[in-house]
Amino acid sequence: MLHQPAYRRVLLKLSGEALMGRREFGLDTDTLNAIAADVEDVVALGVQVCVVIGGGNIFRGVSAAAEGMDRAQADYIGMLATVMNALAMQSALESRDVPTRVQSAIPMASVCEPYIRRRAQRHMEKGRVVIFAAGTGNPFFTTDTAAALRATEMGCDALLKGTQVDGVYSADPRKVPSASRFEELSYLDVLARDLSVMDAAAISLARENGLPILVFNIHAPGAFAQVMRGEGRFTRIVEPQ
């Protein structure tokens, strides 16, 4: 059992839905504060943390495009939703005295910094949590892909995907009780089985750069810190040895 963190620098990927709690849309303050507390615990371990948050709790570009909206325009609206979530998470972290910076791929100088790779790295070296907003800044790319891209750019040791369940299953265990859970998978396993962990572009980018993906339950108190110590329940997605 490891008591020291297994990783020096990590990126935490959260879906927008993870911030809803029991709401049907929007932000749940208690859920936001609980996640902020978990991030605080990991920072206290000496781990450098950056975060990418989706925007599906506010606006889903794909759904809007399916209803007739121009896909690129819908994706830009979704990117703005991620900025709103990032600012909310920044507020929750700073209320716990965790220094935090938001960097947006779409410049909006009045509310956050523009994305600058070396500045973000410097923030992390100084112990600040960096939240990357607005995805990649380009339509047709998901925040999963943005997470894999930023994790690679930041030189992260792992990408952590915080989900609603404690790992990767053969099907949604909330709908299929007989679904089997995986302890470890290869990137190609995820692609071949079409497991809905992250989109194919994100998995491929992680594979090309040897970036491990750890999938865990973000709503289990203390789970983020446990995973950092190599404990608890999570699924590892790595290149087979």
Account of the protein in words:
This protein has 241 residues and is α/β, with parallel strands linked by helices. The strands form two sheets. Strands 4-3-5-2-1-6-10-11-9 form a nine-stranded mixed beta sheet, sandwiched between helices. Strands 7-8 form a two-stranded antiparallel ribbon. It is built from eight helices and eleven strands. The chain has one domain (9-237): Acetylglutamate kinase-like (Carbamate kinase, 3-Layer(aba) Sandwich). It starts with 8 loop residues before the first strand and ends with a strand. Helices cover 36% and strands 18% of the residues. It is globular and about 45 Å long.
Separation, N- and C-terminal Cα atoms: 22 Å
Number of domains: 1
Computed over alpha carbons, the radius of gyration is 17 Å
CATH domain topology: Carbamate kinase
Q: Helical amount among residues, as a percent range?
A: 25-40%
Named at the architecture level, the CATH assignment is 3-Layer(aba) Sandwich
What spatial form do the alpha-carbon principal axes imply?
A: globular
- What's the total count of β strands? 11
Percent of sequence in beta strands: 15-25%
CATH superfamily: Acetylglutamate kinase-like
Unreliably modeled segments:
none
Q: In terms of structural class, how would the helical and strand content be classed?
A: alpha/beta
CATH class: Alpha Beta
SSE arrangement, N to C? EHEHHEEHEHEEEEHHEHE
> Major sheet: size, sense and barrel closure?
9 strands, mixed
Strand order, largest beta sheet: 4-3-5-2-1-6-10-11-9
Mean pLDDT over the full residue set = 95
Number of helices: 8
